[in-house]
Write a structure and sequence with these properties.
Elements lengths: L7 E5 L16 E5 L4 E6 L6 H8 L9 H23 L10 H4 L13 E6 L6 H14 L16 E5 L11 E2 L2 E2 L2 H17 L13 H16 L2 H15 L1
Parallel strand pairs: 1-3, 4-5
Antiparallel strand pairs: 2-3, 6-7
Length: about 250
């Protein structure tokens, strides 16, 4: 990490198998820094196949739904609900607690990062306007009262669908518009488009945009310490544990 500003932080959070998430044995966050000073945060999976194992053991899965489909539906909803709980629990956590001049600026204003939802390993049948509209409607209903920055200026959610890397969206040679789509080109083009749009998200302005990489790291460590010692989060954890036991 350097003493210079200008970095861009991208974090990945989701179930095992999302993009290049760490394996299930990993604890915490792996940090990678590119030559372009992009800081990539690769987190441990927040959900795992233990969810499916528990559901099958307790007969939670309806007979008319396959275990694989049930898990996919549960992970999507659980991930969205996870984001809403994180929004609730971050109440009054400063963005740069190690920098007094920034920690005291607009204390009543909460900071929210830009959130991009990525659906990888998507089947060809899902690349339709009908499916996309359905996803947008679900997200609008789920996050209509949320302050999370999931939507663009037109109230469209930041959602990207990525196909299997080696699976074509259409049978080989089928004509679509003015181009032929084959498997490698389709995945690479969509992944590059997603990457470019993520990097084009608004950067911080003013003094917050001049924070160095080392100061960002120190603030991140301090935020984690604040979260661990938060009475609000501790009480929520106790309440959630009691509800699970009921």
């Amino acid at each position: 990490l350097s003493d210079l500003p200008g970095h861009f932080v991208v974090g990945v959070c989701g179930p095992q198998g999302t993009l290049n998430l760490a394996s299930h044995e990993t604890t915490g966050i792996d940090v990678h820094i590119t030559p372009e000073r992009i800081i990539l945060l690769d987190t441990q999976p927040v959900f795992s196949l233990s969810v499916l194992e528990h559901a099958m053991r307790n007969d939670y899965i309806p007979d008319n739904i396959s275990p694989e489909l049930w898990l996919e539906l549960q992970v999507n909803y659980t991930m969205w609900n996870f984001l809403k709980k994180a929004e609730m629990l971050k109440y009054h956590i400063p963005e740069f607690p190690t920098i007094p001049s920034l920690a005291s600026v607009d204390p009543g204003i909460e900071y929210y990062p830009d959130i991009v939802l990525v659906c990888n390993k998507t089947s060809p049948a899902d690349f339709t306007s009908t499916k996309h509209t359905s996803i947008c409607d679900l997200l609008n209903n789920m996050f209509q009262d949320s302050n999370l920055k999931i939507f663009d200026n037109k109230r469209l959610p930041n959602v990207f669908l990525l196909p299997y890397e080696n699976q074509p969206l259409r049978p080989k040679g089928e004509y679509i518009g003015f181009t032929y789509l084959n498997a490698p080109d389709t995945f690479n083009v969509l992944a590059e488009s997603m990457r470019n749009q993520i990097f084009q998200l608004p950067k911080k302005a003013g003094k917050k945009g001049q924070v160095s990489e080392k100061e960002w790291f120190r603030s991140s460590m301090r935020i984690w310490d604040i979260i661990r010692k938060s009475e609000f989060i501790t009480e929520y954890g106790k309440l959630a544990a009691k509800l699970r036991e009921m």
